[in-house]
Amino acid sequence: MKWIRSLPFVQSASLHGGDLVVSYPFDFSRHPQEERMLSPTPDEQVIKQLARIYADSHATMSNNDTDRCGASFYRNRGIINGALWYSFAGGMSDFNYLHTNCLEITVELGCDKFPSEGELYPEWKRNKEPLLSFIESVHRGIKGVVQDVDGNGIKGASVSVRGIRKDVTTAEDGDYWRLLNPGTHILTATARGYSRVSKRVHLPPNMNKAGRVDFALEKIPIEPDIDDHLFPTVDTWERFDPYNQFERYGEREVGEGGIERQEKPWWWTYFSQSGISPPHWLLRSV
Asked: Which residue intervals define the domain Peptidase M14 in the entry (predicted)?
């Protein structure tokens, strides 16, 4: 875990055996009492497309043959949300999504967990093209550098996409990578002690490389008593909106005692319903 948090991975795949399907996060159900429940990430559209790329490149994973290994997934053409299949906590895909920039899928290579030596080469041939297609799919979306006005990279800056409650963080030299599907996106770069910069970007349907979007942030003075005003924890348009179908505008809700109500992540009910003290330190902050 330290390794993947120290290097700016963009996407990854975990190879398993036992079935023939590609699953994608979340693997842990958004409701603790539901063993099989669709639990999409805010990047549902992007990560589902990564799973589709692998399955469609495989010779049999996405076909409608009901007598083959993995036939139970033929209606979904060889892909499924992990928690909808079966829920489990502590999966690497969920960890990567929640704590790093990396989007990970899980590839179930076949029904035989321990194939014989003679099956290894045919298995490699069946998965060679899907693996290459998956690797090539990293060139989707945007990439760039967040820097100051003097051209120095800003490490640890956040790059957000309107309507997707999941930011990526810049690496050592201020560089970043963000997987996105074609369309028009509003991007915002922020860093403590710097101005906030937003850009509208259009990604065409057919792209053979990621679009380049750089940001130049100006330094601004920060005083402790106005820090929260300059860097609110949740912008007015941000919410759990995995399909990017709507946006929120208007004033924030204020509860009793003038305390602002903030939306909690999907896993919050697990702690509140089980009587365990919720981990406030895990809530997103800028």
From this structure: 1-138
Rounded CA-CA distance 97/54 in Å is 19
Same domain for 189 and 124 = no
Note the pLDDT tens digit of each residue in 147-196.
999 999 999 999 999 999 999 999 999 999 999 999 999 999 999 999 99
Tell me which H or E stretch contains 4: helix 2-6
Angstrom CA distances, 268 to 124, 129, 252, 259, stand at 41, 40, 20, 19
Catalytic choice (34, 35, 104, 108)? 108
Residue 251 has what DSSP assignment? P
Q: What is the pLDDT of residue 166?
A: 93
Same domain flag for 167 and 250: yes
Residues 14 and 94 in one domain: yes
Q: Is residue 189 part of a domain?
A: yes
Examine residue 276 and state whether it is found in any structural domain, yes or no.
no
Task: Name the percent of the chain lying above pLDDT 70.
Answer: 78
CATH of the domain at 106: 3.40.630.10
> Are 24 and 13 within one domain?
yes
Take residue 237 and report the two structure tokens written for it.
């348009």
Q: How much is the pLDDT for 286?
A: 36
Residue by residue, DSSP assigns 62-86 as TS--TTSTTGGGGGGTTEEEHHHH-
User: Could you tell me which residues come within 8 angstroms of residue 220 by beta carbon, excluding any fewer than 6 positions away?
Assistant: 193, 194, 195, 230
Sign of CA dihedral 158, 159, 160, 166: negative
Q: What is the pTM of this model?
A: 0.74
Beta-ladder partners of 187: 161, 199
Q: Tens digits of per-residue pLDDT, 188-242?
A: 999 999 999 999 999 998 888 899 999 999 999 876 654 455 555 444 333 333 4
Kindly state whether residues 126 and 163 are assigned to the same domain.
no
Is 108 assigned a catalytic role?
A: yes
Letter for the amino acid at 5?
A: R
